[in-house]
Structures are given as C-alpha cells and as structure tokens.
Amino acid sequence: MSQLDVNFKRDFIEALDNIVCRLGQGAKICNCNADDRFIFACVEFVEEEIINNTNDIFTAVHGKIDRYINDFSVAPKVSIDEHKTYFFIFHTLHERLSKNNEDKKIVQIILYTMVYIFDDLLNLVNARRQALNERVCQMIKNGTLFKKTGDIGLYLTYKCLYNSAKDNQKN
C-alpha cells in the first residue's frame, strides 16, 4: 500500500467520524424541520450504515476518487484533499441509501451535512456563500441535487470557490 493510500485511509476514517458527529448541525442550518428525535435516529442509522459497510464505502469512494484523478490528471503528491474525500463520501452515501430506498429525510440530512461541512471549509478562507447554500439546500429538498449538478459539478463549484478565495488571501 502506498503512502498516499495509507494517508487516504486515515483521512477517510477521520472524515466518516466527523460526518457522524455533525449530522445534526447540517440538518439545523438548512432548516429541514426535523425534530431532535428524528435527527438522533438519523445519526444512529448512519453510524450503523458506516460501521457495517465501511469497507464497501471505502472501496466505492476510493474508486470514484481514482476516476476523478485519472479523468482530470490531478494526481496528488501527499494526500487527497479533504474536499474530495468529503464529497465522494457524501456522494457514495447518497447513492447507497437512495438505491436502498431509505427514508428520503435521512438522505436529505446527510446532504445538508455536506453543505454544512463545505461551508465550514469555505469559512477557513473567508468565502462563505449563503446564497449558494440556500440553492444547494433547495435542490436537496427537491431531490434534484445530483440530477442538476451531475456526479462532480457540486464538488467543482465548492473546490473552485475555495481555491479562488485561498488565492485571493495570498494577494
């Protein structure tokens, strides 16, 4: 196993832990009107899904990132950036749970958490965009997020915004 794979496995596990810890916060920022009991049940469900399927999720996420890296010729030197790790974890969870016809509200809360985590990453470079969050949350609510943004459009939007703000901080 290469050092890149070792680093990615570690980052993947950290990202999964962070996602589970922040599920409730994601639901709150997008005003999804879920009560605390439902959010708690969602956290338990997602935690169980992750524990029972970590290897399958890891394999799917790793494959998606490999395809992305090969398609765009953006091989990392040391580690996979956290935007990619988070995005492809969320994308994989969305696919798995949608395919299994899980409660639509649980899938929404997972995606709202993605918005929350990406907003935190943007905040690191002073680039929060409330209008973007609102539009993404509306697509999540309507069930059209990946239909409208494709497999990587949302990732590219957040990553380009982050990189642009980071570059502007240097100037």
Describe the structure.
The chain has 171 residues and is mainly α. It has one domain. The protein has helices at 3-29, 36-72, 82-99, 104-123, 130-142, 145-149, 153-170. Helix 2 (36-72) crosses helix 3, helix 3 (82-99) packs antiparallel against helix 4 and helix 4 (104-123) packs antiparallel against helix 5.
Largest sheet: none
Count of DSSP-assigned helices: 7
Number of strands: 0
Q: Helix coverage percent of residues? A: over 70%
Mean pLDDT: 89
Uncertain ranges? none
* Termini gap: 39 Å
- The domain count comes to 1
C-alpha-based Rg, rounded: 16 Å
Pick out its properties:
171 residues; single chain; mainly alpha; 7 helices; 81% helix
Quick synopsis:
This protein has 171 residues and is an all-alpha fold. The chain is 81% helix and 0% strand.
Architecture blueprint of SSEs:
Layout (H helix, E strand, L loop, with lengths): L2 H27 L6 H37 L9 H18 L4 H20 L6 H13 L2 H5 L3 H18 L1
